[in-house]
Write a structure and sequence with these properties.
heterodimer; A: 4-stranded mixed β-sheet; B: alpha/beta; Mannitol-specific EII, Chain A; about 40% helix; binds zinc ion
Chain lengths: ~120, ~150
């Protein structure tokens, strides 16, 4: 799997994690009145776990890093916008270039970075 | 809050979509995003629909998600004259869409509060009976929505 593909799959994983986090928040149903199909949550969890296994197999170090970051910040990967990390909002050093050829992390907060076009 | 999210350039007055997929794509298209980002956002919205339709009934749907592709909490409003099949709770086609996207970093309070006000506005509009679809300008649609907001 190329780094580009890995990063794209990693934020698909994060989207699934955010979705599960959202629907399991009691405030969510309280504020919106939306009903969640409990059986379907299992389906999303299965998709999530399948993807997680694939990513863990392909690059265990990055995957473990994602899980650790998620515990600390609630997310493990974030976008670079205007040369700034959108997790800690610190400007990245000018030596850091936009790339998808390798996995980069923020020198300040450690989060995995993605430059999206 | 909702007032700040409603923008004339984030409105579709006459949606062409017939299906859920087409409707979500049409709403996502309004945002000035690359094809890559649009696809990511579309996928996230569809995943949410798996857990139960965001078609809350009476012709209104509020598709929503957190997504890495937006820079700020973002709302798109769409009107469909003919209606879209959206697996709504009451089986009725959807004529009014509120698509809300938050960044992964937006605090839950902000995101859920916005979603909550949209749900309340939707219920207030639904309560009147027939949903209006004959808007001649984005401003007219925004005014109609704001008339149903309880926060002014
Ligand atoms: Zn950072």
């Amino acid at each position: 799997m190329s780094s580009r593909e890995y990063l794209h799959k990693l934020y698909l994983l994060q989207d699934l994690d955010l979705l599960l986090q959202q629907v399991e928040d009691p405030e969510y149903t309280a504020k919106t009145g939306l009903e969640i199909n409990e059986e379907r949550i299992e389906l999303i969890k299965q998709r999530r776990d399948e993807l997680a296994r694939e990513l863990q197999k392909a690059d265990p170090i990055t995957y473990e890093m994602y899980e650790k970051l998620k515990k600390r910040y609630g997310r493990g990967i974030t976008r670079v916008v205007d040369d700034m990390c959108t997790n800690c909002f610190v400007a990245l050093p000018s030596s850091m270039m936009k790339t998808e050829d390798r996995i980069e992390t923020c020198p300040n907060c450690g989060i995995i970075l993605i430059w999206l076009d | 809050m909702i007032k700040d999210l409603l923008r004339e350039d984030r409105v579709v007055l006459d949606m062409k979509a017939k299906t859920k997929e087409e409707a979500l794509r049409e709403l996502v298209d309004v945002l000035n995003l690359s094809e890559d980002k649009k696809e990511i956002l579309f996928k996230a919205l569809m995943q949410r629909e798996v857990l139960g339709s965001t078609g809350i009934g009476k012709g209104i749907a509020i598709p929503h998600s957190r997504s890495i592709v937006v820079d700020n909490i973002t709302l798109v409003v769409g009107v469909s004259k003919e209606g879209v099949e959206f697996d709504s709770l009451d089986g009725k086609p959807v004529h009014l869409f509120f698509m809300l996207i938050a960044t992964p970093n937006d605090p839950s309070m902000k995101y859920l509060t916005a979603l909550g006000s949209i749900a309340r506005i939707s219920r207030s509009i639904a309560h009147e009976g027939e949903i209006r679809t004959d808007f001649s300008s984005p401003k007219e649609l925004i005014d109609y929505i704001l008339e149903h907001a309880d926060e002014q």
